[in-house]
Amino acid sequence: MKFYNVVIKYRLPLAIVILILAIVTNLYAGFWPSFLLYLIAAILLFGYFFFGPLRLIQEHMESGNLEAAEKVLGSIKFPGLLYKPIRSVYYTLKGNIAMMKQDFTGAEVNMKKGLDLGMPMKEAEGASLLQMGMLAMQKNDIRQAESYVRQAIRKGLPDKENQAAAFLQLCSIMMTKREFRAAKDFFRKAKALKPTTPQIVDQIKQIEKYISRIPG
For 96-120, how does the pLDDT look when each residue is reduced to its tens digit (9 = 90+)? Predict the structure, then answer.
C-alpha cells in the first residue's frame, strides 16, 4: 500500500524518467525492446492527468492534516483533465478545506462546481448540499439554506451525525421563520438520532433550554 502511494506521489517524474529511457532504448535497440517502457510511461502519465493524487488527499483529510491535503490539491495543475467524478470530488475537497479555513466565498464556489459536475455517491452529494446550506446560513440567506438542507435530506446523508446536523439546521430555520411547531418536530428528530459529536450535542443542549417554552 505504501509503495502504491509512493508511485502516486511521484507518478509524473517517474513517467518522464521512464519515457526518456524508452526513447534511448528505441534509438539504440529499436522500437520493440522499448515498447514496454513506452507503455509504462503512458500508463503513468494517463493516471497522473486522469485520476490525479486523490488517494493521497483523502488520507490527509482523514488524518486531519489540512496543510498536507492543501499541498496535494495545489499540485493538480490541470483539474479540467481529471475524470469527471474525480474532478467533482476535487472541487468538493477544495470547498471543504476553504470552509475549514472560514473562506466561505471560496467554499461556496468550489462546492457548487463539485455539485454541478455530479457527485459519485448520493450520500456525498447530500453532505455537500448540507454544507451549502450552512454556508447560506452564514450569509443569512434563510430561504436558500432551507432549500439546500431539505435537498440534502432527500438525497441522503452518510451517517446519523450529519442527519442530526441537518435536522438542527432546519430547527433553527423554522424558529427564525417563527414556525415553532415545525421547529420542535425537527428538534425531536435530531435528538432521537442520539448524535455523539460534541458540537452537535452542545447545540442540542442549548436549544433544549428554551424550546419547550416557545409556543406551538
Answer: 889 888 898 899 999 999 999 987 7
In a domain, 216, yes or no: no
Domain enclosing residue 126, as ranges: 54-211
Residue finishing a domain among 32, 50, 68 = 50
Cite the DSSP H helix spans in the chain.
2-9, 11-29, 31-50, 54-63, 66-74, 84-100, 104-117, 122-138, 142-155, 160-176, 180-192, 198-211
Sign of torsion over alpha carbons 144, 132, 167, 158: positive
Whether 149 maps to a domain, the answer reads: yes
Give residue 12's Cα distance to chain centre: 25
Contact predicate 92/103, CB 8 Å: no
The domain spanning residue 114 has which CATH number? 1.25.40.10
- Nearest of 126, 63, 138, 143 to residue 98 by alpha carbon: 138
Say yes or no: 99 and 184 in one domain.
yes
| Overall pTM surpassing 0.70 (yes/no) | yes
